[in-house]
């Protein structure tokens, strides 16, 4: 399961409304790359795939492909709008190492 904080929920709803995505959900994934080896992917989508896993937390639907799910179990999605950066932030208990910007990790 992926948890969604109140800040992430509010920002996701705002962005979906701005982009006119009424029936969209958050799609979270992992791909190779970044300075630590694996990178997070975060998009809005409205098409389920056969191997997707679906969750709902804090009123937000989150979908993860089967392969990425193994890397993301227990992850929390937050949104930070502070002076040091702005954007969605992943807190992944499975990551052994993360890069300074928080956009990539390794196991």
Structural class: alpha+beta
- Strands side by side in the biggest sheet: 4-5-2-3-9-8
CATH top level is: Mainly Beta
Radius of gyration: 13 Å
* H and E string: EHEEEEHEEEE
- Look at the structure and name the CATH superfamily: HesB-like domain
CATH topology grouping: Hypothetical Protein Aq_1857, Chain: A
Number of helices: 2
Average of pLDDT: 85
Runs in which pLDDT lies below 50 for 5 or more consecutive residues are none
Number of domains: 1
CATH architecture: Sandwich
Number of strands: 9
β-strand percent reads 35-45%
Distance between the termini: 18 Å
**Fraction of residues in helix:** 10-25%
| Main pleated sheet | 6 strands, mixed
Characterize the overall form. globular
Which secondary structure elements does this structure contain, and how are they paired or packed?
Blueprint: E1 3-4, H1 6-18, E2 25-32, E3 38-45, E4 52-57, E5 60-65, H2 66-72, E6 76-80, E7 87-91, E8 97-98, E9 104-106
Describe the structure.
With 107 residues, the chain is of the alpha+beta class. It has one domain (3-106): Hypothetical Protein Aq_1857, Chain: A. It is built from two helices and nine strands. The strands form two sheets. Strands 4-5-2-3-9-8 form a six-stranded mixed beta sheet. Strands 1-6-7 form a three-stranded mixed beta sheet. The longest helix has 13 residues, at 6-18. It is globular and about 35 Å long.
